[in-house]
Amino acid sequence: MLYFAYGSNLNHFQMKRRCQDSIFLKKINLKDFRLTFRSRYRAADIEPRKNSIVPGGLFDISKSDEKKLDIYEDYPTLYKKYFFYYYGKKVMTYTMVKKSPFKYPTERYYNIVQQGYKDCKLEKKFLLRALKNKN
Fold this sequence. Notes:
This protein is an alpha+beta fold. It has a single domain, classed as Gamma-glutamyl cyclotransferase-like (Hypothetical upf0131 protein ytfp). The protein is 29% helix and 40% strand. The chain contains four helices and five strands. The chain has a five-stranded mixed sheet with strand order 2-3-1-5-4. The longest helix is centred in the C-terminal third of the chain and has 13 residues, at 107-119. The relative contact order is 0.27.
């Protein structure tokens, strides 16, 4: 199954530790969404936003990897699954159930996401923009 990571799961070390079967395929952009941080966990989330993009990593994951991600993402309580199509192929990602107000991520979490941006060769400007988009 194809999985789109946009937060801490971009970090290759963390993703491999969590999902042993995962294979990073390439970087892609999710159109008409933007990245933000929210909830008491101060975690990454995506929300619809016209003419905006969220860069992320496309991974191939196994069924057992998906189960592990479900636990990590606190599915279906904190995150729900969101599906979209990328060149005709179905892709799964997670989005928060409750759209609470923006909260700055912790330094530790931010550093994990930042390393993920490097691992996937994503443009850091999108991550920095998410810290400024507080509304």
